User: Fold this.
Amino acid sequence: MALPSHAEPIDKVYYYGFRFVCTLIFIFLIAPIFVIIPLSFNAEPYFTFSTGMLHFDPAAYSTRWYQDFWNNKEWIHSLQNSFIIAIASTILATTLGTIAALGLSRPHMPFRGLIMGLLISPMIVPLIISAAAMFFFYSSIGLSQTYAGIILAHTALGIPFVVITVTATLSSFDQSLVRAAQNMGADMRTTFFKVILPLITPGVISGALFAFITSFDEVVVVLFLSSFEQRTVPRQMWSGIREEISPTILAVATILIAISVVLLVVVELLRRRSVRIRGIRE
Amino acid sequence: MSETVAPLAAPPSSGAIRRAKRRSDRARAWRAFGLTLPLLGFLLVFFLLPIADMLRLAVANDELARAMPAAATALRGWDGEGLPPEEVARTLAGEMRAAYEARTLADVAKRLNNDNPGYRSMLMATGRKLPDAPPDDALGALAAIDDAWNNPALWQAFRRAAAPWTDLYVLQSLDLERGPDGAIQARPEGQAVYRIILWRTFEISLLVTLACLVLAYPLAYKLAHLDEGTANLLMILVLLPFWTSLLVRSAAWIVLLQREGPINGFLQSIGLIDAPLALVFNRTGVLIAMTHVLLPFMVLPLYAVMRGIPKSHVRAALSLGSTPFTAFRRVFLPQTLPGIGAGALLVFILAIGYYITPALVGGADDQMLAYFVAFFTLQTVNWGMAAALASVLLVAVTALYFLYARVVGIDRIGVGG
Assistant:
């Protein structure tokens, strides 16, 4: 929407004004996330940019808050917990979700709408309701305050993302490839592993990454279901923010942002790859 | 999937073919359904059953029946007029003492306290003071311990606690109660807090939805009118907050908005304000942070709709002599209405259930419904009330969700895509 050369002054005012407004909105969207990154390298325990920082004085920057994080047993323990819970629930959600998505995208699937609605309901029900309901129920069957309980809960929350991503991939999947494979004598197993799986792998991995980040960032369910033993990084951050927000929180936040960026880039690359290998858009 | 075709001796009748086709279709349907079974089973046990159980908890009323079963049965047989007959009182006094000894009276006391705050300590004291053997004049003995036992209101509360189900919590969450005659009435002014909370939840969600719409519309418009490559690049900037932990974003806003934070520092250094503004731990903070958190959910559907609108439409309107504003209002805007509807409903549905952001960046008067669900679950351990409030929220979300499914279609509910 470049400005034509014959634009009137009023058009120019409108054009640049609009661009300015859009830039401001972009800044609102992105700035909060990036402002805390330099602040996490602040040598002083404050949340403002010191004069030294503004003049890029190396002495004003330090990694002390990262060392703080690294040397703190509670933080490291919570980091381990986060990885254990996120990886376990991702494996469960991806396996169950992919198998279900294969069923859902078959042309003969009965009650597709209803079942799809049920499968993605954990995404629609507000987290606070899921968390409270799981807390009541898991308490009564002895699953609250256990790793298993949190992993099962996070699996339920991650499933919709896997189901949606994999069914979307399968919807643009060319079913004639399956018939072609079978024509050439491949059995069900070979067809699945040699034809279907390689083509839907990008979708499966994207779904798995969504499930992973859902669990890795999740705090409400953990708040209800975990004891001190199963504290995750977000749970530890929640306490930190509520009690007294320290620069260590910003260091942790920066690490989480870095993880998000990496995952987002991987998902984007997978999307492009899957577009390329099939020559069609999702 | 392979279709086994039996060698046919004679050409089959069309009926036989149709039957065979039906049979094979049915088998395929079962196979497809079978693939979804493990996941359905998993969600049934670990997600749907807990939700159903929570709905049950909102009307569950088994504390008295569990701790004092005979008294509960006796109370159910009483007509509820005035004071109960002596046998009912004697059964109750006897079992109450036993429950006190067995340490199960606390559950009953808590249940009656939910009905009328103040009953708990009175009931525990009565349990302590009652003699071990049931007294001959139970009504008199109870009244001698505490005057409250002379009041039919206490006995009626007991009778309500003896019923198999209770509407106490659901009514309370709507600021209603059962009067002395059993009719539903409004709670007294001072105790009516939940309607305020419901209204506040609605108000904050609506304001956040509007703010998101106002900010997302120009952004999506700009993105939709850029070339594909630039738009994709900028789209990553929209998706990044989407992928960043809610907690990180809330913490960022606390840091940015606090009294000694960068925003106040900047505004003071350019001389726009003299004293730091109170931007966080109040309504302003909640609105800013929630708008930021939910903005991508509005941008994505708007962008998707705007990308699909042919550019030639507005150009045609312009070449036919319309002003740019009229072309926008009459040609472009109406075509984006589905996107506006989808985005607004999605943001609103997400906003009314929000807990983390208001809890972190809000003050005591900015807490929404979700906060009180957590409060009653984790702090006061009044599960009935927590379940009732969560059920109210669930009903609201389900209604909005059906509206969304009608407006947008169930298949379009995606990862914001």
Remarks:
- Chain A has two domains: 9-60, 74-278.
- Chain A touches chain B through 95 residues (CB under 8 Å).
- The first helix of chain A runs from residue 9 to 39.
